[in-house]
Fold this sequence. Notes:
The structure is a homodimer.
Chain A: E1 2-8, H1 10-13, H2 20-31, E2 35-42, H3 46-59, E3 62-66, H4 74-84, E4 89-91, H5 93-106, H6 112-115, E5 119-121, E6 125-127, E7 136-141, E8 144-149, H7 153-171, E9 176-185, H8 189-195, H9 197-205, E10 209-215, E11 218-227, H10 233-250, E12 255-258, H11 263-273, E13 278-282, H12 288-294, E14 303-309, H13 312-317, H14 323-329, H15 334-347, E15 352-358, E16 373-379, E17 384-390, H16 395-415
Parallel strand pairs in A: 1-2, 1-3, 3-8, 13-14, 13-15
Antiparallel strand pairs in A: 4-5, 6-7, 7-8, 9-11, 9-12, 10-11, 15-16, 16-17
Helix pairs in contact in A: 3-4, 11-16
Amino acid sequence: MKSVIISIGDELLIGQTINTNAAWLGQRLTNLGIKVVEIYTISDDYDAIHHALFEAEKTADLIIITGGLGPTKDDITKKALAEYFETELVLNEEALENVRRIFAEKKHPLLDVNVKQAEVLANSEVLINELGTAPGMWIEKDNKYFIALPGVPHEMKNLFDKKVELKIKNRLPLPFRYQRIIHTIGIGESALAEKLYSWETRLRNDGLLLAYLPSPGIVKLRISIEGDSDSNISELKDIVEKYVSELQEIIPNYIFGYDNDTIESKIGELLQKNQATLATAESCTGGNLAHKITSVAGSSKYYKGTVVSYANEVKTQVLGVDINDLKEHGAVSQQVVEQMAKGVKNLLKTDFAIATSGIAGPDGGTAEKPVGTVWIAAASKDKVMSKKFRFSTDRMLNIELASIMGMEMLRRLILNL
Amino acid sequence: MKSVIISIGDELLIGQTINTNAAWLGQRLTNLGIKVVEIYTISDDYDAIHHALFEAEKTADLIIITGGLGPTKDDITKKALAEYFETELVLNEEALENVRRIFAEKKHPLLDVNVKQAEVLANSEVLINELGTAPGMWIEKDNKYFIALPGVPHEMKNLFDKKVELKIKNRLPLPFRYQRIIHTIGIGESALAEKLYSWETRLRNDGLLLAYLPSPGIVKLRISIEGDSDSNISELKDIVEKYVSELQEIIPNYIFGYDNDTIESKIGELLQKNQATLATAESCTGGNLAHKITSVAGSSKYYKGTVVSYANEVKTQVLGVDINDLKEHGAVSQQVVEQMAKGVKNLLKTDFAIATSGIAGPDGGTAEKPVGTVWIAAASKDKVMSKKFRFSTDRMLNIELASIMGMEMLRRLILNL
């Protein structure tokens, strides 16, 4: 089962908007066992739309189109689609009702241009978009499936999750597919591949697929297996789970989670399980660590807050770092980062704390402490762990890596690893 | 002058990596007056590469290819390119020297596979990549220009900035193009368009181009003009500048910056100009405000830190918020957010402070204070401004909007707007 994603929008071509929709859809389709063979990003223009549809249809069974359905642009994209499918646009009552509801809630008057939002292709099944005025459309033609979705990310995602995914599962001849994702941290892709060499060889010989998915600080392993209607499904699952279990024995300390886990959700889980609270003290991460922790819904249950101490006097006066240690060892030192962790734990009265102090760059590096040098500490009631890292020369990457490794140090402290 | 970007990499198709390279290149090319007509994201595979090049060549004069040049993948992409251009791969001495230097610096042994990194198309001009082992290549064929760049974002960007841009300017028949970008904040796209109606009509009648580029909280206006070799260049510039000046009179308070400014760099500038310092107290923004402020290199000169007070006791004990006000009005209230701003200003001994308190969602909303309700305050030595906002139902969007509007309130406070 092959798929092509067509992203429509000039804002994508001029780089005003980063195409996050295509990546999100790529993940979802891959997880369904559908291979995304190409992504076309094109202009909201007749010829471009027709050419992309024509090309996509040659290789793919499923074509997902996002964007171009908004109130200012619907003329072109919907008309171009209608022409391509040799059909017409008709007003859909249910979609109009949805548009009316949204305008009533916002207390905005309904204009003619807004009514046009409820027009859909006559040959389509309408996918009502609860979060916006542009409905999605599902079109079948010559055993090919076309799905047009709005371009606003949260509308597109909601529509896919609530309506499209199930329809795909019901209508399309998907292969049976079972996969697990194993999240590792603190080990690079090549070092990991070396450790897993013989395991990976056996896995591949058993017909399983393995992908290494690296991102800053983290490498995910995706193990999957595909079968058809004749396959013994529970047998296939068992094979995958056997390799997952083996992995737990080969690299137990590097695995922090599975499937939809993230390091921030994982430390949240661990803290809640221990009925414990957390505070952070950040220098070089400048609030990014707090931002990541609080991006988890419900984090207010265990996270009390952070003190970002960009200035040295905040380190001494608010966090209680010894001014002599600061002078003698510098802000980027084991002594200071450990005192920051203990200081914020006392100040915010929590069970655990994480602290970071480093040189994010681009300036501020010295021969002894070059850009990318970061000290990180994690503290509990009776213990402080600290470690020096040497990340990169890129400011934003250093901030991200220090945030992630700070959470990892807390995980290790809580689990006594 | 038309361009197509070809992004190569399975990680882009499965959504493991978001295609930020294409957006970045789209911006750069647009700024050079080159129209990006399409972005193809394809697999690292012979047929896909050949087909994409063939299609791109039909419409574009300039084809930029990123990715697929890494050590584990170079076999396919470089070979596919060599075949397409009917040429061969040859070892380039300068590129090899660069590979050797990088391995020596990292103290890693040089393997055969790494030497292959220095192979380039025989028909190409080599673009040495100082930050990585994969060189870029510049190929000219039948008045078409092909540029192959590595996929690692900081390597690609560095190579484009240091070598590719100048070469494009020297070799390609670019139109003369002059543009200014005006950054507005605190006014939506449609309200802005309404205010600018007659100005925009005159501007378009004068042959200028205008684009509205919206992002959360901010709308950029891009005014541009194009000419050819016969044009009177300084006259064209003057026309654009005249419209920019007029804009300053029509919407003076909504404009916060020009061209490469950001709201975070702008408040940094204002603070430095006033030799003033800043602290923040964040509840619902959870560190994102601090993260944005500290993403500016050199922000340690004026930014002292943040206290993220996710817990109420941090608000009272650390920031000195009155416990009775907290009980009576709740954490998301004018009383509390103003006390948070004053409290952190005193605690960190700064001249200015910003504070946020709101309900980011998805939970925690009530009928009176639904998700998206955010109080923001900005404080100076003798003044506190505060305002209630009602953003959206999306947690991450609320965090982003509250961070941006917090900085905007500080800007207004400093400038007395």
